[in-house]
Write a structure and sequence with these properties.
This protein has about 375 residues and is of the alpha/beta class. It is about 35% helix and about 15% strand.
Length: about 375
């Protein structure tokens, strides 16, 4: 790929809305949310005809920083930097890319640790329970604010794919194409169970205090445990065997105690520590609950095709062979429902040992596919 050698610098921006009740965001739970902020980043330039806008939607622990660096000194780029940027598959020389941090998060957008304007205190568990559709409603406000009347594509993996599906059915006239990757139209009982256990781990941390924890005494052990559990679901048995096997981490023989022995144990502990440094426990509650409630078919008495009937977009649906969190069968169910509505659908299952995380790692295979699809969408529109 012809990647530029110039460092790409991106600027976080804030969009505020809902300063009065009339402009408040109406939520699925029946409540309204005022004084909402969405953190977002834009890369590239909007074409004169407005037809090159691509909205990228992030997964559970993601944020608006999809590519590039905020400063030249930043050690790590955005979370999808291999896919997005000048000369990359989602080419910012060609497309105007927007990525916003979801409602309920802790990375700049309004969430449970934000200040409630009505009380002057943190929302914590007084924050309204949100849904994936609520996240998309907030994003729609941002896209309107940016003066974009139609999106060339909405693209996302995992929870981002759920948002892409919501965009296609909630605002069909605004979405030319959608690329849901490694996702599902309905969270499975197994996934709901993993989310529940993760939240229970946080609840039993003595620092949690029913969500009213102090900034300097956060429930880090509970959140780290929740992350370790979730991280196992993002991997595959093949990738864990290849990366760790039964290797010992610190000694040449078993310690015959209950401290770290295996490399995989040390790895998970490291992932838990890293997560606590950048994420909030209450946001974990709200975002995982939003995923639990995600069930498109439920809106149409269990008929997924009928639920997706409003969509008008062309679709590229991608799954990965070793993804047992959102397995290929769930992507096929989406494809079959879209085809029943006579929509144009391309589908590919990519062979990979990386498990669910493959959508972040298999960019050499995923990239050309996404690039070609977007190019066809853009050229077909002209």
């Amino acid at each position: 790929m012809n990647h530029t050698s110039e460092p790409l610098l991106t600027i976080p921006r804030d969009f505020r809305f809902g300063e009065n009740e009339a402009d408040a965001l109406e939520l699925d739970c029946g409540r309204k949310l005022q004084d909402v902020n969405l953190r977002y980043e834009c890369v590239g330039e909007l074409a004169p005809d407005g037809g090159n806008a691509v909205l990228i939607l992030h997964a559970l622990s993601g944020d608006a920083h999809v590519c590039g660096r905020h400063t030249p000194e930043d050690r790590k780029p955005g979370w999808w930097d291999d896919m997005v940027g000048p000369g990359k598959p989602i080419d910012t020389n060609r497309y105007f890319v927007i990525c916003s941090n979801v409602l309920g998060s802790c990375a700049g957008s309004t969430g449970p640790r934000s200040i409630n304007p009505a009380t002057g205190k943190r929302y914590n568990l007084d924050f309204p329970v949100i849904t994936i559709r609520d996240m998309v409603r907030a994003q729609k406000r941002l896209i309107d604010h940016l003066g974009i009347s139609r999106l060339l594509s909405v693209v996302g993996g995992s929870m981002g794919g759920m948002q892409a599906l919501e965009w296609a059915i909630c605002y069909p006239e605004m979405v030319q194409s959608a690329i849901p990757i490694a996702t599902t139209a309905q969270l499975s009982p197994q996934s709901i169970a993993f989310d529940w256990v993760g939240r229970e781990a946080i609840k039993y941390d003595p620092n949690w205090k029913n969500g009213d924890y102090e900034p300097d005494r956060v429930p880090d052990q509970g959140l780290a445990t929740a992350r370790m559990l979730a991280h196992i679901t993002y991997l595959s048995d093949e990738s864990m065997s290849r990366k760790f096997g039964r290797e010992l981490q610190e000694h040449d023989e078993y310690g015959f105690d209950f401290q770290r022995d295996f490399a995989v144990e040390s790895y998970l502990e490291h992932q838990g520590r890293r997560f606590v440094e950048r994420f909030d426990a209450n946001s974990y509650f709200y975002i995982t609950r939003a995923m639990d409630y995600f069930d498109l078919a439920e809106r149409a008495d269990g008929n997924l095709a009928r639920a997706l009937a409003p969509a008008q977009a062309d679709f590229l649906v991608v799954s990965f062979s070793s993804d047992w969190l959102f397995p290929t069968a769930q992507s096929r169910a989406i494809v079959h429902a879209l085809l029943k509505n006579r929509l144009k659908v391309s589908f590919c299952e990519i062979e990979s040992d990386y498990g669910h995380d493959a959508f972040l790692l298999e960019t050499d295979t995923l990239g050309p596919m996404v690039s070609a699809f977007l190019r066809n969408q853009r050229e077909g529109r002209k």
